[in-house]
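Sync notes, pocket subgroup
Present: LS, DG
LS reminded everyone that the earlier model was apo-only. Rerun requested with iron/sulfur cluster included. Inputs:
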Amino acid sequence: MLKKRYVLTFPTNLLHEPTTYHLIKDYDLVVNILRARVNPNEEGLLVLEVEGTKSQLESAVKYLQDLGVGLQLLARDIKWNEKVCTHCTACIAMCPTNAFKVDKKTRKVTFDKNKCIACELCVKACPYGAIEIEF
Ligand code: SF4
Ligand code: SF4
């Protein structure tokens, strides 16, 4: 069994397509939704962790691509080094998924790995090298 993570982007005409249901029912995959953002009239975003055999995953990818869903494999991880972080908040504005947040009271920055889609925008934004890409 293989476990992979994908970022799915949905054009507005596919927002109501029950893709997760099909991945589970038709392709027999174990699906874990890591992140979902759906706003009417905007592109939808779904970050999924899927588990299945190689052929099940390949068939599911083909189904999504044929449907017109944007697909990006998440092969990398982002590592936040809390000890190096100065909580300058420079990364926060860069992050499209709010994986980096600042606590309004303490002014401390936190990182929620489950929200991260590994777009790497924060890596260059951090002036202290507190964010790294893990291969
Ligand atoms: S890579 Fe950085 S900017 Fe991109 S989603 Fe993850 S935490 Fe946010
Ligand atoms: S940009 Fe770097 S140092 Fe600044 S809050 Fe983000 S991770 Fe910490």
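DG: The pocket of iron/sulfur cluster (ligand 2) is lined by residues 85-91, 100, 109, 125-126, 128, 130-131 (CB under 6 Å).
LS: The mean pLDDT is 91.
Action: DG to write up.
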